[in-house]
Amino acid sequence: IPVEPFDLVIFGGTGDLARRKILPGLYRRFLAGQMPVESRIIGAARGDLTDEAFRQMVAEAIAEFVPGDRRDDKMIAAFLERVGFVSIDAKGTGGWDQLAARMRPGVVRAFYFSVAPALFGDLAERLHAHGIADAQARIVVEKPFGRDLASARALNAVLAAHFDEHQIYRIDHYLGKETVQNLMAVRFANILFEPLWKAEYIDHVQITVAETVGVEGRGAYYDKSGAMRDMVQNHLMQLLCLIAMEPPYHFDPDAVRDEKLKVIRALDAPLPEDIVRGQYLPGGGQGGYVEHSENPQSRTESYIALKCHISNWRWKGTPFYLRTGKRLRARASEIAITFKEPPHSIFDDAKGWRENVLVIRLQPNEGMNLMMMIKEPGPGGMRLMQVPLDMSFADALGADAEDIPDAYERLIMDVIRGNQTLFMRGDEVEAAWAWADPIIAGWEARGDRPQGYDPGSSGPEDALMLMHRDGRRWREIK
Ligand code: BG6
């Protein structure tokens, strides 16, 4: 279904995110017929590019980041006709009149701030001063949204000075992932799970986001951030919220976000002994974290595992184990919900019993698995075995699976539609920082050092202990 025609201005239009994600994503939506031909995309950045030179850059980005079978020369040419460039001085006056002159009446206006947060205020102010942003205009901002509660509040205040909350789209691209949204469908469109979705029946929840990449090339940013700020405060927190939240009364932006906010507020800080931080060592012909970050003294974590609890009726007593790290064995993200044992076993083969586990695979091989106990087939008597009820999106959807938009594509289309459900509200971001800040301050005050781990492993040894101590095990990263 096509969205309304729009003028989308990308500040930072020549930057890495624009090249890798935003522009190729828009092309794919154009190809899919979702971006109407009456739409315009305007790159805005400091450089002195002509429209033609910018189009050339966009064409190169498409060639690099869109798979060959999705590149159609005619469609690319048609897409590029809708692309232009304005050279802009974010802190001065240059370019703003030219930008104003390019905006058309009667179409949706969206402004993507793909720039350093320090420029948000300047951009917001000038958009208003030049009458470019109308009351319906939308602005899109990226993470990192602050690096602690104080800076997040300051950013919220800067934006709030010029825009209403309903105009502000804070991206957490995990919310745009197909399976992440499916979490809500699984929970709230089926009766099957909800009665069991509580501490009484759920033993524990594991959330894993494992990556094989290191921080090469992003060392300067990453070293000031670390896995807690880069991944847990936002992406893992959002996953946890979708698992733990109460059913919203409607699939409506504020109803959903109100419920997520309650989860964040009820989330206890993990105890110091329930946090394991790691840093990858050199190996596999590559430098270790300290070489990549160019800080030999760095205590920043490239891996974190922690156990936390949610203090409310539904979840009292069910631990949530979170872990994420770089340069691990495999790129594998999943949520695993482990149910408790039946109250009484009628089978002699109690040893063979294993827990029911619902596994939601976010990437790769998106899909779901429900681990069930059945009778081992054959004449061997009543012996139990565990088998998966397996659903892979690729199998279920066949060729259509290729047309699933990636997270950025979907989220940008939601901006144009004016649907904020999959975007973080200001109070949500602040609550997530209010949770993370004291945890980070705690390890800084204690002077904790991260434990080294081998690249290609599943993380530091202590992370295994975090589970073993509780008589549980992490699922294998593979
Ligand atoms: C980003 C982080 O937000 O998410 C990166 O800054 C991380 O460090 C990335 O690599 C992971 O995203 P994805 O979609 O590849 O799982």
TrEMBL record:
Which gene carries the instructions for this protein?
zwf
Q: What is this protein called?
A: Glucose-6-phosphate 1-dehydrogenase
List the catalysed reactions: D-glucose 6-phosphate + NADP(+) = 6-phospho-D-glucono-1,5-lactone + NADPH + H(+)
Residues that, per the record, bind substrate:
H173, K177, E211, D230, K326
Can you tell which superkingdom this protein's organism belongs to?
Bacteria
Q: Which residues form the Glucose-6-phosphate dehydrogenase C-terminal domain?
A: 184-475
A Pfam family annotated for this UniProt entry: G6PD_N
Catalytic residues, chain numbering = H235
Q: Where does NADP(+) bind?
A: G12, G13, T14, G15, D16, L17, A18, R19, R46, K143
Task: Give the EC class as a word.
Answer: oxidoreductase
Write the Enzyme Commission number(s) for this entry: 1.1.1.49
Which segments constitute the Glucose-6-phosphate dehydrogenase NAD-binding domain? 9-182
What InterPro entries does the database record attribute to this sequence?
G6P_DH, G6P_DH_AS, G6P_DH_C, G6P_DH_NAD-bd, NAD(P)-bd_dom_sf
